Amino acid sequence: MSATGTPSRTTHDGRPALTKRLRDAPPLFFEREAAGLRALAAAGARVPEVLAVDGTSITVSWVEQGHERTPASEERFGRELADLHRTTGERYGSVDGEPTAYLGACPVDLTPTDTWHESWVGRRVVPLARRAADEGRLDPATAVLAEDLDAARLGPPEPPTLVHGDLWGGNRLLDPQGRSWLIDPCAHYGHREVDLAMMQLFGGFSGRVFAAYVREHPLADGWEQRIPAYQTVPLLVHALLFGGGYGVQAGDALRAAVR
């Protein structure tokens, strides 16, 4: 889910850059994208440099694209993502304590919490499901299933892990050298299966990525069965933003997550 705004190629202090503008941007919209990019960069991820940001725009360094995905580039990305996921924090949620966040153009609550269940379910799944039901995007009888998504269904406890938070195929770029870059994050401290589930929601990542990841940073047993629990938030966001069949998909994910 790319951040809403009009992108254009620009220059900044003589450097090629990309600027996204949104005149009526909601509070901290671009500032939170900048905070996420900086957090990922500090953890060693390859991301565009934030050159300027204000309430209505963000300017980042230009990433030249031009390399097809190869077995080598996919395996390298899997290892790099595993390295990113070794960065941990003290609490779940925001990278810097600010609760305001956006998944695409949809506000989400990243208030720091002591438990992953409160962060993922209490502050995201349940409120988003209720809103989707209120707006007629999700069947109310299905929306209440969000309350049944207990901590056991989110997997064994792990330390709060820095995740990209919106890792669909369009938010990974390859430069002419075949190196992967991450863009448009909803970065936060959460569970690393959030990124892996999102990567499988809309495609764009080969099996080599996941195989390399698991070799480098093994996952707890049953992670494949937890994918629906971690696809609920992006599907609910899509239902709210775009409607269509996303509400049905979100309901299917909720039912699979709690069965």
TrEMBL record:
Xref: SUPFAM superfamilies: Protein kinase-like (PK-like)
Keywords: Kinase, Transferase
Domain of life, source organism: Bacteria
Region Disordered: start-end pairs: 1-23
Pfam families, per the entry: Fructosamin_kin (PF03881)
Keyword Kinase appears in the UniProt entry: yes
GO terms for MF: kinase activity
InterPro entries in alphabetical order: Fructo-/Ketosamine-3-kinase, Kinase-like_dom_sf
Stated family: Belongs to the fructosamine kinase family.
Descriptive protein name: Fructosamine kinase
Species assigned in the record: Ornithinimicrobium pekingense
